[in-house]
Amino acid sequence: MHYNKTLSARFVSRPNRFIAQVDIEGKTETVHVKNTGRCKELLLPDSKVILYDANNEKRKTRYDLIAVEKSGLGLVNIDSQAPNKVMAEFLAGRGYDVVQPEFRYGNSRIDFYMKRGDQQYLLEVKGCTLEREGIGYFPDAPTERGIKHIHELIQARQEGYWCGLAFVIQMPLVSEVRPNIVTHPAFGDAWNEALAAGVKIWFIGCKVNNDSLIVDEKRIVAEE
């Protein structure tokens, strides 16, 4: 996926989870943060950040903060809407007869329903921005919603669907994601239950640039 117009700035502060203060060539600007997660290990004072110019006069903020430079790693995309857009582009080129986003199953909306011949597929997508020693971790905060989605996938797998959980890794160099059991032990339990039930787990590595987030075909890994 591509952003039409971006520019660099320096991170100053984050008054709340929706906005940040940044420095653009000596001028302080309030910008929208496209990720309500904590991002405490990323949004550090004076870090280089990438802004997207929304070019919408009706908005209170002109720019969206979409990425941040992490020392020793590189540029990390933190746009929470990007993973589903990247996955939609990726699935479109995989030969499915049907690719339908936001599919209603049980009490949830699963990110993607696909069909190829008689086989039906359900795929839930998560973005990963948390890295420690070259390994990605999810979640960065407790997520009961994430556990609920995994349980829905397990149920669907028992009904004959091919089911998968895809982690779009929004940073370079990282090709593996592990459950963050320190932050949310129950998510690790759900992860293991999913694997035991036959739910596939994909790690989708990406190339991150100032104006794009693109799947890196060499960093696609399936955990069996």
Q: Compute the CA-based radius of gyration.
A: 18 Å
In terms of quaternary structure, what is this? single chain
Unreliable segments (pLDDT under 50, ≥5 consecutive)? none
Broad CATH class of the largest domain: Alpha Beta
Secondary structure tally, helices: 3
Q: What's the count of strands?
A: 15
What is the H/E order?
Answer: EEEEEEHEEEEEHEEHEE
Give the N-terminus to C-terminus distance in angstroms: 28 Å
For the record, the count of structural domains works out to 2
Mean pLDDT across the residues is 96
Report the sheet-strand fraction: over 45%
Main sheet characteristics? 6 strands, mixed
User: What coarse outline follows from CA principal-axis ratios?
Assistant: globular
Structural class: alpha+beta
Strand order of the largest sheet: 7-8-9-12-14-15
CATH topology of the largest domain: Trna Endonuclease, Chain: A, domain 1
Give me the CATH architecture of the largest domain, please: 3-Layer(aba) Sandwich
Helix content: 10-25%
Structure, described:
Helices cover about 15% and strands about 50% of the residues. The protein is α+β, with helices and mostly antiparallel strands and about 220 residues long. The strands form three sheets. A six-stranded mixed beta sheet has the order 7-8-9-12-14-15. The protein is globular. The mean pLDDT is about 95.
Topology:
Blueprint (H helix, E strand, L loop, with lengths): L5 E11 L2 E6 L2 E7 L14 E6 L9 E8 L3 E4 L4 H11 L5 E8 L2 E9 L2 E10 L1 E3 L2 E4 L5 H15 L3 E8 L7 E3 L5 H13 L2 E10 L2 E12 L1
Parallel strand pairs: 3-5, 9-12, 11-13, 12-14
Antiparallel strand pairs: 1-2, 1-4, 2-3, 4-5, 5-6, 7-8, 8-9, 10-11, 14-15
Helix pairs in contact: 2-3
